[in-house]
Amino acid sequence: MRLPLSTLRYTLLCVFSTILCLTTTAQDAPIKFGKIDIADLQMKVYPKDTSAEAVILCDYAESYHRYSSGSGLQMVFERHRRIKILKKSGYEWATHAIIAANSKSGSKEFIGSVKGATYNLVDGKIVADKLSKESIFDEKVSDYRSQKKITLPNVKEGSIIEYSYSITSDFDTEIRAWDFQKSIPTVWSEYRVKIPDFYKFQIISQGYEPFVVSEIKSESISLGVGIQAEMGKSYRWAMKDIPAIRTEPYMTTIDDYTARIEFEIAAYTPSNGMHKNFSLSWNDFSASLSGYENFGGQLKKGGFLKDIANNIKLNTKDTLSKIQAAYDYVSKAMTWNGQESFFASSTLKKAHEAKTGNCADINLMLIVLLRELGLESYPVVLSTRENGRILSNYVLEKKFNYVIAYTRVGDKSMLIDATDPLLRMGVLPVRCINGSGRLILENTGDWIPLKTTEKMAKTLISNMTISPEGQVKGELNVSFLGYYGQNYRSRIKKEGKDKFTENFKKSHPSWEITKTEIEGNEDLSSTLVTKFETTINEKSNVAGDRIYFSPMLGEGEEKNPFTSVERKFPVDFGALMEENFIASYTIPQGYVVEEIPKSARVSLPDDGGKFTYLIGTPEEGKITISSKIMMKKTMYFAEEYEGLRKFYDQIVQKHAEQIVLKKK
User: What is the pLDDT of residues 582-617, one digit of tens each?
Assistant: First the structure.
């Protein structure tokens, strides 16, 4: 949005999670272009993270407003970044894309003042190679995005690179967010923002790293040469020695945990008193969505489903059967195109005719059909796991990217997603299990927990015979339940049974599979079972008069997924997990059991999970083994991480143990 200077007079609101300290001291920029410390060039390894491929020595930016006689009030963003390259794998940091946006209305962002250099130490002296114009490329990303892509020259292990640029934006009510944390460590990251008092912004902070500087001061802010200065607020945030943040197992999205500052316009109050409020309450949010033609408007246009609804009414009696019939119709009649949105792509009628659409086309259609059946049904908007969490304190429409259906059976509520016909009605896809969603009524709403009772469960049962040559031969049945069943049904549907079997064989190269059967693939109420007849050669070894073999057949936990010593954010499985392994082995005649692992039982605190490993010789010539892993919570918080990591360490250790058979 663009506002004329003469109408702007604001009071700034800071909604901010850290304490801001008043200060009146001016601060110099933390780095100066071209002024390189020789000690940084001599650095071979970053001491605080010896595995780092590169380290950001300094990342510094300022955002402020400037008035242009030709364009009005604009937002200016200036950035200066300096990086030390430590390994060849860090060369990718020498390439950077500077993104600029534009809009249908003609507002644009302009990239300028681009410069850069690479510094190397040659014979004890600092030699600089400047960024040339030939290494700056203009590219179109989309209809509303363009970029300048720069690649710094002569980069080697040990080089320091730096670059700076500015972005002048017509979007004067949009202040760029700032990420203090990256996938490589950062020595110093600082962001300064100046905001005239005629703006009102929400300032949102997140992450687990502390600020070493968090300051605000009131001062006179210049908006350009010849323009009267305005009173405003000057902000300064800085962090130091920031560890790299990397994707880890069982996390939603790394964006949820990166140390960051974001800004959202709340209101403005012009001098003539024409106040405009951008900040919404959650009731305002519901009213806005209800008024949008591609959301609430589509829920009022269900006439095209009237005949289908009448047919369902003739063939069903109770509420649950009506809901099931509506779900069956929409999930089978429509094919999800993989696009996530809470807005319909056009009209639901057109999507119905095309038999395909985004998740809003499909789930809003389900809501309309349920209403045509005389049932209570409303939309629930949410953010998927990959899109990030919703902050209930901030009403931000842009944070949502998905919609599902809400309905009731008696006094019980039900959440339904019809995008995947391979999930039973009422079972949400794992992508949707992310905190809470917002139930949208006409002018109000409520928070709805996005939970599931469905498990990720599988059971392997085998009956095997060990030959004197060390071959392990027999039958294996693998049962997939819950989300595992849905995952494998999806693969079979996509690949076909033959291709699925072929790919399974490729993923188990040590298994010589001679026969395969798949049962329960079409019936969602039954268990999906894959049956194999196989010979396994690589899990046993003959040495003299002994046979050493691994009873888990490569299906156990071979590596702890939690390798980090410390984790500051939760482990989020999404759903409860259960894995069972049951095997019976007939040992070759003339052999006895010389060594066998001990049985074990391990539990997490507060009944958070259990691992049982039972092994024995119930009769001569037989060995039986049972392994069961049960994760009894979907989320484990940071203070539980060490216990969870040790829990998996014990599982990996036990699953790696071998059985030793000795010839009599």
Answer: 999 999 999 999 999 999 999 999 999 999 999 999
- Two tokens, residue 90: 């860090």
4, 98, 114 from 149: Cα distances, Å = 33, 6, 10
The amino acid sitting at 60 is: Y
- Tell me the C-alpha distance between 420 and 216, whole Å: 50
In sequence order, what are the beta bridge partners of 83?
Answer: 56, 161
* CA–centroid distance for 508 within its chain: 29
Please tell me the distance from the alpha carbon of residue 629 to that of residue 363, in angstroms, as a whole number.
Answer: 35
Closest C-alpha to 567, from 134, 237, 243, 230: 243
Q: Where are the beta strands (DSSP E) in 12-71?
A: 21-22, 54-68
- CB contact set of 192 (below 8 Å; sequence gap of 6+): 27, 61, 62, 63, 234, 235, 236, 237
Residues in Cβ contact with 410 at an 8 Å cutoff, skipping those fewer than 6 apart:
319
- 3-state class (DSSP) for residue 156: coil
The model's pTM is 0.87
Q: For tokens 């498990």, what's the residue?
A: 455
Q: Of all residues in the chain, what percent carry a pLDDT higher than 90?
A: 81
**How many whole angstroms separate alpha carbon 238 and alpha carbon 244?**
16
Q: What is the C-alpha separation between 5 and 67, in angstroms, rounded? A: 8
Per-residue model confidence as pLDDT tens digits over 58-93: 999 999 999 988 888 999 999 999 999 999 999 999
Give the C-alpha separation, 447 to 435, whole Å. 10
In whole angstroms, how far apart are CA 286 and each of 448, 465, 519, 553?
14, 64, 46, 54
Domains of the chain (ranges; CATH) run 5-26+44-277 (2.60.40.3140), 282-449 (3.10.620.30), 455-663 (2.60.120.1130)
Q: What angle do CA 504, 510, 512 make, to 5 degrees?
A: 75
H-type alpha helices, 280-318: 282-291, 306-315
Contact 248, 53 (CB under 8 A): no
